[in-house]
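RECORD TYPE: inverse folding
INPUT: structure tokens
STRUCTURE:
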């Protein structure tokens, strides 16, 4: 008797179980399941384990959060790059968006995580500017601008949190 492949066997198993397969098909399936563990498990009624939907969703959500974190860091550096320039007024729009992205990454912890990221990023940019001999802020200005940006970011966190609560997306 000719050996059948796993694909053919898996197609024939429901027909054999329902009793509508021909004798030759039944014998071919029984011969195949003697040597193939995966097909045997399907034949005796053990369904092969399907991918866990919850794990797949968690993996997707981690990837989305990583992308949002990258966008948020880009926004932080872009917004901080506008400090002391003519386009600085755009930070009144950029920082609330950064806060909203922070909410989707950190939830309510974004109220302190985003300002900490702002302070660290602002300090790093200021330090690099000082090392390279470019214009940099003094300590007081650094803290003042970071506090102002943090207020705008906190406003974005609150807006995103309240919108999620209003649309029942909050856990």
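DESIGNED SEQUENCE:
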């Amino acid at each position: 008797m000719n050996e059948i492949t796993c694909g053919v066997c898996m197609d024939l198993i429901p027909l054999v179980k329902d009793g509508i397969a021909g004798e030759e098909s039944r014998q071919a399936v029984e011969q195949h399941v003697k040597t193939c563990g995966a097909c045997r498990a399907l034949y005796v009624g053990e369904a092969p384990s399907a991918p866990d939907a919850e794990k797949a969703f968690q993996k997707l959500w981690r990837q989305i959060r990583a992308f949002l974190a990258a966008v948020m860091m880009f926004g932080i550096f872009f917004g901080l790059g506008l400090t002391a320039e003519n386009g600085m007024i755009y930070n009144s729009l950029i920082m609330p968006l950064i806060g909203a992205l922070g909410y989707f990454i950190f939830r309510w912890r974004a109220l302190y995580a985003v300002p900490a990221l702002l302070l660290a990023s602002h300090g790093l940019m200021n330090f690099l500017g000082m090392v390279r001999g470019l214009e940099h802020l003094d300590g007081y200005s650094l803290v003042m601008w970071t506090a102002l940006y943090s207020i705008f970011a906190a406003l974005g966190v609150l807006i995103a949190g309240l919108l999620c609560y209003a649309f029942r997306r909050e856990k």
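NOTES: The helical segments are 6-18, 23-35, 37-43, 53-81, 91-106, 110-131, 139-166.
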